[in-house]
Design brief:
With 178 residues, the chain is an alpha/beta fold. 28% of the residues lie in helices and 30% in strands. The protein has a five-stranded parallel beta sheet with strand order 3-2-4-5-6, with helices on both faces. A three-stranded antiparallel beta sheet has the order 1-8-7. Bound molecules: guanosine-5'-monophosphate and magnesium ion (MG).
Length: 178
C-alpha cells in the first residue's frame, strides 16, 4: 500500500481558514445561514469551521448534525444492519440557507441521501455543499460542491484518509493507493 500525505497540519489550517472566509463572503454574519454536518465524519469539519467562524464573527454560528443511514439507496441491500448516528437539528430550517458539510465527496450518493434527509425537516431557501476533500472523476450523480477544501484526483480503488487531532492524534490527509 502506497501512502502519500496530501495535506499536513499547516495546509489544513490554511484550507479551513480559506473556507471560512469563502463562507463569510456568501453568508455575511450567518444570521440566515445554518451549517449541517453529515454523520459521522462531516462533524469534525463542522467543529473546526464553527470554532473559526465564531472567532472571526464574534457571534454564534448555528450548526447541526444529520444522519443519512436510512436514506441511503443501498441500505436494504446490505448484509449487516446499519447502525445510525445521531441527528441533531433542533432549529427550523424553513427559509434558511443551509450549507451541508462532509469530509469526502466521492460518487455523490451520500449527498443525494443527505438532501432527502434534510428536506424531511422543511424547505430551506437554498442548500449548498462544502466538501473538505473532493475526489473528482468518480461521480455517479450530477452533484458538485460549492466550497472545496482540496480537489484530489483519485482512482476508485484509492482511499483518502482525513485525520483530525481529536480522533487520530494529528491533523493530516493521506492518499492510500493499493
Ligand atoms: P459518496 O457517497 O459520495 O460516494 O461517498 C462519500 C461518503 O463516503 C462520505 O461521507 C465519505 O465519508 C465517504 N468516503 C468516500 N470516499 C472516501 C474516501 O476516500 N475517504 C474517506 N475518508 N471517506 C470516503
Ligand atoms: Mg461519511
Amino acid at each position: 500500500m502506497e501512502k502519500q500525505i496530501i495535506l499536513n497540519k499547516r495546509h489544513i489550517d490554511l484550507t479551513l481558514k480559506r473556507l471560512c472566509y469563502q463562507l463569510i463572503e456568501s453568508h455575511n454574519d450567518f444570521s440566515n445561514a445554518i451549517i449541517i454536518g453529515l454523520q459521522p465524519r462531516g462533524i469534525h469539519v463542522v467543529t473546526r469551521l464553527k470554532k473559526q467562524l465564531e472567532e472571526i464573527l464574534g457571534k454564534e454560528v448555528i450548526c447541526g448534525n444529520l444522519d443519512i443511514t436510512f436514506y441511503r439507496d443501498d441500505f436494504r441491500r446490505r448484509e449487516k444492519p446499519l447502525i445510525p448516528s445521531a441527528t441533531n437539528i433542533d432549529f427550523v430550517i424553513e427559509g434558511k440557507n443551509i450549507i451541508i458539510v462532509d469530509d469526502v465527496l466521492f460518487t455523490g450518493r451520500t449527498i443525494r441521501a443527505g438532501l432527502d434527509a434534510l428536506l424531511a425537516f422543511g424547505r430551506p431557501a437554498r442548500v449548498e455543499l462544502l466538501a473538505f476533500i473532493d475526489r473528482r472523476f468518480n461521480r455517479d450523480l450530477p452533484i458538485q460542491a460549492d466550497y472545496i477544501g482540496k480537489t484530489v484526483d483519485t482512482l476508485s480503488e484509492e482511499r483518502v484518509s482525513v485525520e483530525w487531532s481529536e480522533t487520530e492524534g494529528e491533523d493530516k490527509v493521506i492518499l492510500f493507493t493499493p
